[in-house]
Design brief:
This protein is α/β, with parallel strands linked by helices and about 270 residues long. About 15% of the residues lie in helices and about 25% in strands. A hairpin with a 6-residue loop joins strand 11 and strand 12. Helix 1 runs parallel beside helix 2. The longest helix has 23 residues. It is globular and about 50 Å long.
């Protein structure tokens, strides 16, 4: 997609909390079934990237459920990532952290899937997609003492700026969570176009200042076994707007627009 008189229009898919491998090590009938369902779900997510011809894809943490997932699960993940028609930017979360014994130390997924970009720096790093004039910044999980966006760098020179974070958004009246705190003031100061969040299984927009859209993609298939999850298709409009569509992973279901997503903007989360 291109545009005259403005920035290049782009679209990408935002997902998180895929949790591949959550049922790898139990042989009971339910676990075998759920493992296959989660594989089928991620394959369907990748099918959506092909259907909508996305420019790139973001996975905002917990791609794998733990560091002990089976090797064939990792091979399946790489096989699916290779199918995406563009770069796949993966930020590890708390389940697939980058500390000692990380799942990402076992196989070189970036070799197996050359379009995969793995953000491994716990101090934060910038990924540039120069052909799209996109910069993405994220900080990978290392331990529980972790602030996804504290002291994150401000906007750079690219046309589009996207932050990626995995943690709990805390609004003024919320109770405290144990760790991984994300605050509106941390997001607003960045002046990013979009903040791709992971860690919550429910799709939710959150407050991020006047100029930034921030949202949790939700899980495509929650660990509780609730099927029919969804992903976010994010449209970066030529003159600076950001539009979201929530697409169920199951086929032939209606999608929700940006304004239909639940918004957490300073009120307690029900």
């Amino acid at each position: 997609m291109s545009s005259s008189g403005g920035r290049r229009a782009l679209r990408f898919l935002h997902t998180s909390d895929v949790h591949l491998g959550a049922y790898d090590h139990s042989g009971n009938e339910r676990s075998v079934r759920r493992r296959q369902e989660m594989h089928d779900t991620f394959e369907a997510v990748v099918d959506l990237t092909l259907q909508f011809e996305v420019d790139f894809m973001i996975i905002a943490g917990d791609f794998f459920d733990n560091a002990r997932v089976r090797e064939d699960t990792m091979e399946f993940a790489a096989e699916q990532v290779r199918r995406v028609p563009g770069p796949v930017v993966l930020l590890p979360g708390n389940h697939d952290h980058v500390g000692p014994g990380s799942v990402y130390d076992r196989l070189d997924l970036t070799h197996m899937a050359p379009n995969l970009i793995l953000m491994r720096d716990p101090d934060g790093e910038t990924v540039t997609l120069p052909e799209l004039s996109v910069e993405l910044w994220g900080r990978s999980h290392l331990d529980a003492d972790f602030s996804p966006f504290g002291d994150a760098p401000l906007r750079g020179d690219a046309d589009w700026h996207i932050g990626i974070g995995h943690g709990h958004f805390l609004h003024p009246q919320s109770g405290t969570h144990s760790s991984y705190h994300i605050y509106e003031e941390h997001l607003a100061v960045l002046d990013h176009d979009y903040i791709a969040l992971g860690h919550w299984e429910q799709q939710t927009r959150v407050a991020a200042g006047d100029n930034t859209v921030a949202a949790y993609s939700g899980a495509p298939d929650g660990l509780a076994g609730k099927t029919g999850g969804a992903v976010l298709l994010v449209y970066l409009e030529p003159h600076g707007g950001v539009r979201l569509e929530s697409h169920p992973v199951q086929e032939h279901r209606d999608f929700l627009h940006h304004d239909d997503l639940p918004l957490l903007d300073g009120q307690p989360n029900a």
